[in-house]
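Per-record layout

source: Novosphingobium rhizovicinum
name: Large ribosomal subunit protein uL10
length: 171
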Amino acid sequence: MDRSQKAESVAQLNAVFNEVGVVVITRNLGMTVAQSTDLRNKIRDAGASYKVAKNRLAKLAIADTDYSGIGDFLTGPTAIATSVDPVAAAKAVVDFAKTTDRIEIVGGAMGTQVLNADGIKALATMPSLDEMRGTLIGLIQAPATKIAQLTVAPASKLARVFNAYAEKDAA
């Protein structure tokens, strides 16, 4: 890599760090190509991205961002998983780490909050942004549904009473 390519790589990483909601640092312990491809596919399906970057360039890229605290995690064969959704990248990496011992979660950050490996695992157990939105919409819609049921209920009860009297008179 020549100097211009390094500068371009730092600029791209810096742009990514300025846009994302969470960064997860992993250490690759001899993953096969098939495992690496599987991990990338799972992360992409979750709406996140996964990149192997040179540690020196990544440290330069995080210098002026909220993620400057994760510089200590960037040692050895590392890779960076990022996502705008604060849970997506963590959930995808933790789920993959359960299936193999070839990847280690080193740590990460959510905004200015630096998280260790246990913090990333705890973050992965939280519901995603879409799940939270669905729950919130369900909670908002529930009272309206109950009101609609209550307004219809007296009419149906009245109809049943009239039907019972009609059947009684017919018998």
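summary: The first helix runs from residue 3 to 19. The chain has a mean pLDDT of 88.
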